[in-house]
Each structure stands twice: as structure tokens, then as C-alpha cells.
Amino acid sequence: MTGVAGNEDHRPVLDSYRRLFRTPGAVAFTLAALPARLSVSMYGVSVVVMVATLRDSYALAGAVSAAGLVAVAANGPWLGRLSDRHGQARVIVPAVLVSTVFAVVLAVCAGADVPAWTLFVAYTAACCTPNVGAMTRARWTVLYPDQEHRHSANALEQALDELCFMLGPVLAALLCTMIAPQAGLIASIVLMLGGSLAFAAQRRTQPVIRPVTAAEREKSPLRVRGVLEVTVTFLFTGMVFGSMEVVTVAYTDSLGRPAAAGVILGLLAAGSAVAGLAFGTIKVRGTTAARFLVCVAGMAVLMQPVLLAGDVWTLGVLLFVAGLATAPTMITSMTLVHELVPESRLTEGMTVTMTGLLIGVSAGASVGGWVVETVGAHRGYATPAIAAALALLVALIGFGPAALGRRRPEPARPG
Predict the structure, then answer these.
(1) Listed residue (28, 69, 78) closest to 239, CA to CA
(2) Among 161, 179, 208, which residue terminates a domain?
(3) Best exposed site among 361, 371, 387, 401 by fewest CB in 10 Å?
(4) pLDDT (tens digit per residue) in 252-310
């Protein structure tokens, strides 16, 4: 027994991830989904830069972007539910084709002499693409229902998300500014269409359609005990990300170093990616709810020192450190949602929580911009610091010791 334990302790770190890809089809669906996931990280930036450049109005660009996020919030859970009931491929193909058509219309209208309302209509209709990230996570949970593999899979997914959001906005900005205002959106359209269709073609790893009981059909995932708390926690976590981006751009600009914003935000994502990959190799212990509380608390604590940054390089170091807690929080959250939501509504449940994150990003950007205008760029870092503290407060209310003693969230199936 001792020898076996010793071998496990010295097992190469990457073995946790190599084991995930031993199942036939795992590599294929992961690689197929990557272009679509990169497209998501490029989409918003591409639209904002395109509209602001061609229409000479950041206000219009921001309003169009906000309308798109509202559409994503409305469509996401519905598309997730359809995926659970009819299969991922049957939903992805028509949805991505419709989205592609209206995204092309948006690119044309942005540069044409047409009323501004056409941009809102086109972008709203273009934001009906399924959440490929939620669908890949759903596939992993079906392939590996045990906690150890599921933990590593969620860590891998979060690291891939961080990689896409490190590269996507930079690539979009370069295409829009160096080639043409519409270039970023066109590239995003091609990546989304190609990646989504390639992912839909990987049918052997697609989750089996499970029968939905009458009670499950009538009950939204938000009414499952614990899911609302995770979703609201995600909302405030999204506010951390959204406000951080706006405040950092404003702060580096105030120091006369606007180009440093991308590098600084990249360090935040890099810290999160490193922590996520490392976290995925750790053998988890205790309840998922307890780990969720610890991770959210870590995020709240590590976000506070950012207020003390006095120059760009100190800020970069502090944001890298702050990022160390974000990926573990997201990883544990997805594991917790999997334990709480019925298998027949898994994609919908994950999409609901991710929608909360998107709403938070939008709200955080708006609040962060207002705070910067009101009290200055440096003090604007109070916004992500407070948002992280509010995320912890919600997590404590939902999953703290007192709450667990009164009404412990019960998994919808054996975890």
C-alpha cells in the first residue's frame, strides 16, 4: 500500500490531464471547440471597436454591446435546455447558421448609411450561438462522472477559457486596427462557424438524451437549492472581471502608458491559468461546497491589495497574484453545479450560471466606468475589490456553516 501511495505522490503533474484524453473522441471534441471558444473572446471587442470606428461613437458601441449581452442572457439558458432535450448537434447547427447570417448583416450595416437601430437588431439576433464552453463541460461530466476526473476536466476547461481570453481580445484589436474595422468580426464569424460545426460533428462523445420528469420540466435550475447562490456569486465575480478591464485601461492611460493595459490584464489571466492547471492536479478532499467557500474567500482576500498599487509594474504583480484564486473558484463552481443539477438539465444549469457571469461582466464594466469618472482611475479599483467581497458574502449566505446546518443543498443525484 505504501509503495502505491508513493508512486501516486510522485506521479508526473500532467498525468492528471493525460488520463482525460484516453477516452476516444476526447481530443477531437476539445480541439474542435477551441476556435468557437476563441471566437467568443473576440466577439465583443470586435463589435465595440468596429462600431466606434465606423460610427464615431463609443456610446453607440457600448449600447450595442450591452444589447448583445442581454440577448446572450436571454438565449443562453433556453438553448442549453434545448441541447439537453434534443442533443447538442441538433441545436448547434441551426443556431450557429442563424447567428452567422446576422453577424454578417451587422458587419455590413455598421459600414453602411443605415439607421443605428439596425445594428441593435442584427447584433441581438447574432447573439444566439450556444455556449460551447458549457457543452464541452457537459461532455466531460458524462465521460468521467467520478469526482477526481471531473475536477481535472473542469480545471482544463478553465485553463482553456483563460487562454482564449488572453489571446482573443488582443487578436481582435489587432485585426480591427491594422486591417479593417470589420476584420475582427469577420474572423470571429469564421472561427465560430467552423468551430461550432466541427464540434457538432463529434457525436460519439455527445451526452445521451435523458428523459425529463414532469417535476424537472417545470422546475428551472435556478429553483434547485444552491444554484441561485452560485449564479449570484458568479454575477459578482463577473463584475470583478468587467470592472477590472475598464479600470485598468483608464489607470494605465492616466499614467501615460495605455499600451500596458493589455499586458497587465494578461497577467491577471496568466495567474488564473497557472493556478487552474495546478489546481486540477490536486486530489480534492472534503465537500465541494466547503471548497467553493474557501476559493471565493481566497478571491476576495487576494483582490484587496490591488488598491495599494502605485505603479504599473506593482499593479501587474498584484493582479497576477489576484488571478491565482479566480480559476479555482470557477472550477469548483462548475463541479458544484454538476452535483446540484439533474443530469437531464446539466447543460442548461451550467449555462444559467455562466449567464450570471456575463451579466456581471457587463454590469461591472458600466459601474467601473462610472466610478472612474467620479473618483478617478486608481480609486476605481475599489469596484472589483468590493465586488469580490460581495461574492464572498453571497457564498457565505448560501453555503456557510449556518446555512448548511439549516438547509444543506442536496445533490440532484449521487455525486
Answers:
(1) 69
(2) 208
(3) 401
(4) 777 777 667 767 877 888 888 888 777 777 776 778 888 888 889 999 999 999 888 87
Query: What pLDDT is recorded for position 391?
Result: 92
- Residue 249 CB neighbour total at 10 angstroms: 20
**Which grid cell is 52?**
466606434
State the burial class of residue 74 (Cβ atoms within 10 Å of its Cβ: 0-12, 13-18, 19+).
Answer: middle
- Shared-domain flag, residues 299 and 348: yes
Rounded distance, CA 185 to CA 176, Å? 8
Sign of the alpha-carbon dihedral angle for 333, 336, 340, 346:
positive
**Cβ-proximal residues to 233 (8 Å cutoff; 6+ apart), any chain:** 296, 333, 391, 394, 395, 398
> Which grid coordinates are listed for 111?
459600414
Q: Are residues 150 and 264 both part of a single domain?
A: no
Last residue of a domain, one of 208, 228, 262: 208
Name the residue among 298, 291, 300, 289 with its Cα closest to residue 403: 289
| Claim to verify: residue 176 and residue 267 sit in the same structural domain | no
CATH number of the domain residue 377 falls in:
1.20.1250.20
Q: Which of helix, strand or coil describes residue 11?
A: coil
Residue 160 structural domain: 11-208
Question: Is the residue at 69 inside a domain?
Answer: yes
Q: Which three cell numbers stand for residue 319?
A: 493582479
Q: Of the candidates 34, 79, 62, 53, which has an alpha carbon nearest to the alpha carbon of residue 123? A: 62
Q: In terms of domains, do 181 and 237 share one? A: no
- The closest alpha carbon to 333, from 146, 159, 161, 158, belongs to 158
Three cell numbers, residue 302: 487576494
Closest CA to 107 of 126, 94, 93: 126
CA–CA separation, 140 and 171 (whole Å): 29
Averaged pLDDT, 42-64: 76
Q: Do the domain assignments include residue 3?
A: no
* CA–centroid distance for 121 within its chain: 24
